[in-house]
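Objective 1b: paired records.
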Amino acid sequence: MQYELLRSKRKTIAISFDRDGNLVVKAPSWVAKREIDRFVASKEEWILATARRLQRAREKEAALRLSLESGDELYYLGEKRVLTVVREERSRTKIKDVCGRLIMTIPYEADYSYKQEQLEKWYRKEAQRVFEEKAQAFAGAIGVSFQGIHIKDQKSRWGSCSGKGNLNFNWRILMAPEPVCDYVIIHELCHLVYMDHSDNFWYLVERFCPSFRQYKKWLRDNAGLLYKF
């Protein structure tokens, strides 16, 4: 059974799937590969059942995929934005956020992939601005500092923190409700104090985000809403 192996200082072996349905195994750095293979083989029934369930979920998600035409509903920090597509004789795209609408002016020949690419660029630019502002404010409150923020489209996580103090965030978090977005940023900033998920780490997260459990649950239950295009 094929899988991606990620080694770290963790204490146990864990199995999960990324957004593309690929099997990911996280294991302590000291565990032998043959032992990891035996562990994965022992979980084969669960892996196959979960893979089937996730495939059905992806098919359902694809059926709900937005057409990226006028009237589609997008979100910005949890607030609805109705998409308005305007086609003109032009070579470049312009996107404006006006009174609850995202007005996207595009060339006549633009297809779905083009619209998807342009919307993602706009969201990434906005995410860079918003996340930097929020991270600066939360970092001051927590008493930490970070090197920089990088916007990505990570398949299996909403954010990450490197040992050098760089923060990475999935741009799609900008579509989530603002308290959820804040939780993800606080979570990664707290890793600048504790580079693990120990009790001390979660105590620190709770200090600055008392309802973090609610926001974690929202992400588990509503991730598909952030992947509609």
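Objective 1b, second protein:
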Amino acid sequence: MIFITVGTHEQPFDRLLRCIDKIIEEGYISEEIICQKGFTEYEPKNYASQKLMPYVEIQKNIADARIVVTHGGPASFIAPLSIGKIPIVVPRKKEYNEHVNNHQVDFCREVELRNRNIIVAENDEEILDAIINYDSIISKLNVENYSNNKKFVGDLVKEIESLF
């Protein structure tokens, strides 16, 4: 299953949902797709979608999904990372009236460069490539589960152990 979430930002994200419909129509995806479409006006033709989902349902869909596709909001792509999944992140763009500026593009590119634990796909071709080649792409990325809390606790334990 592929789970798509575009968060709850008030501007629509038709571009991503149309792209997924096109990929299905062209025969590249045959598995089930579940989509949380937020305030996107476009109604997908080839997969299930709903405007909003309870948090518990989103977490279950993320856990059950083979691939998670999300917009560039940090909370949306940190959720799959927190359980060891590498998401495909499609940043919203100002030029398509998906956001007020391109901060998602800038932020996602920086996360991809620094951590190597997300796949940034900015256009239809990159989205298609990321989905088709997902397994080979993630095999080259950092699948370590990043957690500053874990690091802090680990460092604290080492420090305490060194005192005794």
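Strands lie at 2-5, 33-36, 48-50, 67-71, 88-90, 119-120. Residues 22 and 65 are 20 Å apart (CA to CA).
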